[in-house]
Write a structure and sequence with these properties.
Blueprint: E1 2-7, H1 19-22, H2 27-37, E2 42-47, H3 51-61, E3 67-71, H4 80-88, E4 93-97, E5 119-122, H5 127-134
Parallel strand pairs: 1-2, 1-3, 3-4, 4-5
Helix pairs in contact: 3-4
């Protein structure tokens, strides 16, 4: 099984950015834990702060991978383009969020990803990614 985790803008700052919301662990450290937890899965990771680069990556993996675990960050609430990219590929996508976006600002309660995603996981901290991977098993 081949799964990719995609992270959008500012998620490269995990471990530094607002630790009271996002925790103090870097995603790179957590990704190493995920690879150990799921040794039978070909797990890869990609992060970009650029919307077009995320769209390109979805197009690249969207017909050959078994799953995408996608935290589009703020693009979740603004990017029609990412929603359309997900709609246009065959690989199922799970939308994940570290925080409970529904308990935050009103604008964070709108997702352009969700209508085209297989499901949504939010509010479980970094464990949201773990749950996203498990949803494909």
């Amino acid at each position: 099984m081949k799964i990719i985790i995609l992270n959008g803008p500012n998620l490269n700052l995990l471990g530094k950015r607002e630790p009271e919301i996002y925790g103090s662990k870097t995603f790179e450290d957590y990704f190493e834990e995920l690879k150990e937890r799921f040794p039978g899965i070909d797990l890869s990771y990609y992060q970009s702060n650029i919307e077009g680069a995320l769209i390109d990556k979805l197009h690249e993996v969207g017909f050959s991978y078994d799953g995408v675990v996608f935290n589009a960050g703020a693009y979740t609430h603004t990017s029609v383009g990412l929603g359309d990219a997900i709609k246009g590929i065959e690989t199922p996508v799970i939308e994940v969020h570290i925080s409970n976006v529904h308990a935050r600002e009103d604008f964070r309660q709108v997702s352009y990803i969700a209508p085209n995603a297989k499901g949504i996981i939010a509010g479980f901290g970094l464990k949201s990614y773990d749950l996203g991977i498990q949803s494909f098993i």
